[in-house]
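Quick one, T. Sequence first:
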Amino acid sequence: MIEFARQALGLSESVPIEIAPLAGRGSDRSFFRLTWSHAGSAILVHYDPHRIENTYYGDLTIFLDAIHVPVPRLIGHDRMRCLMLMEDLGDTDLWALKSAPWETRRDLYRKTLTTVHRLHSFPERDFPAEQVKLMEGFGPNLYQWERQYFIDHFVGGVCGISLGSSHRQELEGELAALAERLAETGRSLVHRDLQSQNVMIRKGEPFLIDFQGMRFGSPFYDLGSLLCDPYVAFLEDERDELLSFCYGFWKEKLDWTVFRNCFWEASVQRLMQALGAYGFLGREKGLKSFLHHIPAGLRNLLDAVSRTTSLPRLRELLDGCGNAIQDSKIKL
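Structure tokens:
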């Protein structure tokens, strides 16, 4: 790995390079910080190509940079050895600033929402599909996979709840209808995991990372990911302030009431996926830290469901999940 880094950086053998592992991110990738000389540093990534989206990251980085969406610069990429060398943006992300004064956080989130709007505004007809690969876009299959992921790994795996055939059928009908409504909210490039740990902050400006799962889908999915993020807490008026700011990009297209409903329904879909992921990563992959985010994720999901009138079966199920999590037998 060091040999690859030297070649990509143009450093001679006489320059000592130190390598330090960084915490994993649950995506079958290993991260290392390389340092040399006085202030030189870069991030070395080794990825598992069997997780196909990992192989898309390099080309997506180049594409996003070309359309002026701020991302870390790709310094070098060895596809055969599954190695990438990336610009080092430091250690500060939106999550690290979760306790900062609201005035500071508000400005950074507004900048992030502006960046995300630039991504969402890119015309699908102009996407260079022959050069840049994407994961399958949101549609009936992916929405169904997400809700099954939620049922298998959170409802069953974490909460120990087994759904009867009648309840399962009613819930499936309700959530399939939700997916149909989301499919009608527009189609754009979406990050797919737009949460606070995937927005780095350098010199007061946001940079997107971990976008290997990018695809076409509802832009509201990204908005729900960011503004209903279980990793950070918002007061209700803080979230409303950011949602109102975001509506400024949409007011020519949608009525405010419709916009809010789209946001909350997409947030429900996203939070189901997140809770399924926390259960899978925590229980199946041994990444126990993800289990600690389940209470906040469930609270946010209950809140999002309460803002809609179309999901009574899901609300009933979530009440049962909340009771199960309060059981002392479940250790999070």
